[in-house]
Amino acid sequence: MSKSTKPVKTAKAELPLRIISALVLIGISLLATTLGGPYFLALCIVGLALIYFEFSDIVSNRSNLPLTTIGYGVILIFVLLWLFSSPELAASFAGGMIPLLCAIQFFWKRRLWVGLGLAYAIFPFIALVCLRGSETDGLHAILLVFGCVWGADTFAYFVGRKVGGPKFAPAISPNKTWSGFVGGLAGSVLVTAIICLLLGHGFGAISVFLALVLGTVSSIGDLFESWIKRTFDRKDSGWIIPGHGGLLDRIDGLIFAAVAAWLIGWLNGGALLEPGATGTGFLNAFILP
Description:
This protein is mainly alpha-helical. The chain has helices at residues 6-35, 37-59, 65-84, 87-109, 113-132, 136-163, 178-199, 205-231, 247-267, 277-286, and strands spanning 167-169, 173-177. It has a two-stranded antiparallel ribbon with strand order 1-2. A hairpin with a 3-residue loop joins strand 1 and strand 2 (173-177). Helix 6 packs antiparallel against helix 7. The longest helix is centred in the N-terminal third of the chain and has 30 residues, at 6-35. The protein starts with 5 loop residues before the first helix and ends with a helix. The model is unreliable at 1-9 (pLDDT under 50).
């Protein structure tokens, strides 16, 4: 058996496990998203903690440990403020602590990883919670974001393996190809078109454009996580998801796409930190009237 065939056979052997793990994760996400309220909030809090934990595990060493530990304290206080005070106060607290920790670590070690890890974990939490809210618009908005990301991931994986061709970013992620990238964009458009059809919404040119935007942003998020792992010589971000590695290996695209959708909703008139408002703004921007 040649060396070149081993990775392919390993990937084929892992494919059923990857599919099962993905279906379980999708099922849990869809259930919590549909139920909304405390269920979706709990899902986002778990995601927030795991994102920071896995990111810190990748980039941390003993010299970073004191600031990394402080980062956990920041997350705890942020969540408590969000739950028992207001999103505005929680966001203001995080907005002050992230640059403070960046400044401390930069002047101490010429690094920014702790503050970057906090931003990487906190901003998607804010984005998802503010997109979802408690109304139907928020549910539909989140489903469209999920559709963009899952469509891009799935089509990029299978089209890239089937078609191959020139590498997309060989210095960062050697397995990614231009065919996979284009296939991922097509997947974003196709899946969101199906979701709009099922939800009774119109799907037009602006829908295609925003699906392409979120599909592209999702790919950037995937590349960013690949760059972090390559920088620190890590294959996976963790071990929590069989066949995939860590949570970051599964939701790296969602982290960036959720923040992009949140900002689109805000630009379309949704209050930035009012749960549900940016979801309505994003949905109204995405669908035909």
